[in-house]
Amino acid sequence: MNVTELLRLLQAEHDETAARADGLRAQIERLTTGLVETEARLAELTATRKVIDGLTRSDHEPAPAETATVYQRIVATFNEHPGRVFRVRDLYELLELPTDEPSINVTRSRLGRLVRQGLLDQPGRGRYQKRT
Length: 132
Prior knowledge:
This protein is mainly alpha-helical. The chain is 67% helix and 8% strand. A 3-stranded antiparallel beta sheet has the order 1-3-2. Helix 1 packs across helix 2. The N and C termini lie far apart (58 Å). This is AbiEi antitoxin of type IV toxin-antitoxin system. Keywords: Coiled coil, Plasmid. It comes from Kitasatospora camelliae.
C-alpha cells in the first residue's frame, strides 16, 4: 500500500466519522429541545394542578405536601414572570428557599443549564430571564 492510497483511506474514514458526528450533534439538539419543552410543560402542569387544588380545597382542609421539585418551581417562576430579570438570591427569596451558599451554587448550575438549553437568557452576569 502506498502513501497515496493510505491518505485516500484516511480521508474516507475521516469523512464518515465527521458525518456521524454531525448526525449525533443534530440528534442531541433535537433531544435537548424536546427536553426543554417537556420540562417547561411539566412545570406548567404542576402549577396548574396547584391552582386547581387550591380552588377545590375546603377552607379547613390542610394544604397538600409540596410535590414540585425545586427545578420545576424555578421553571414555573420564570414562566409566571417572563419579563422579569432574576438574581439567584431574589429567586430564592421569592420561592422561600434557604439561602445558604451550597444551595445557591446548585441553583446557579441549574440556571446555567437552562441557559444552555435555550429556555433562559443571561442578560448580565448573575442575572437570568425567560427567553422570549
